[in-house]
Amino acid sequence: PAALLRSGSFRVVARLIDRAGNVGPESLSHRVTIQLMGAAALPAPVVPLAADNLINLEEARRPVVVQIPQIAQAVAGNSIQIYWNERALGSLPVRADQQWPISVNVPWATIVADGFVGPVARPVRYELEQNGALINSPQIQVNIDFRVAGPDPQGPTELNTLLNPVIVGSRRDNAITPMDINQPVPVQVRLYDNPRVGDLLVLHWGNLARVVARYRVTGNETPGQMVDFTPVPYDVITEAGDGLAIQVFYRIFINVNNVRGVNGQRANPTPVRVDTARLQRLTLPKEACSRKWV
Which residues of 121-136 are buried (b: 16+ CB within 10 A; e: fewer)? Predict the structure, then answer.
């Protein structure tokens, strides 16, 4: 009778009774779910980082968060299971004092489980478990682009130790020597295994925030080839100052529409010895040195 029914998940079996009242064995069971209240109209999940319709690698490192807006029908004891690209993120119980929205970080391993690819769409949805019944939310599509230049990232950090460090100086000894005084300083690096047309390498020197040199892959390079950044102006060297281990490193980006680089990775820094004050003294004309001490 309908009055005896309630919402939930149940095991249903049948038994035959003959006219004499003998009861036979149980049949094979069948699991059924009853939802008397009707399916709750669940709100769609929200991924704030996808508000501009794309999540790139830099954003994925923050990390990515999935939010569940308030579910009017949810009560304490219900549970919510979120899925990113059909990978479960774990079951979340609804508490009596539940605060909405519910926010869940998507682990890095889940985000990149299908590789550093793009642009592709990833489905995101969740299930509400209520009285033994599972109610599905609307599914949204989140566009991602995790393509990178060079070797695949080693983790969520920008640093990739598989990228070769730079070699600095006219003598290739990572030191500014008298040969470099008042001259543009050469910087070289050995390319990675899969250089692609348009990949952009940008060089940073010391604590200067700006890019000081660049190299753009033309497509004529071979894996492992030594390439030269645009020479670093000597004014940059003096502006960054002297030190026994000035950190010189580069970032690498894929090319997008020939406008700007995205999805950056960073190589290990090269410590460079810089003592411009001493070098200037060493290169002073003898007459100037004599007059200085008269």
Answer: ebebbbbbbbbebebe
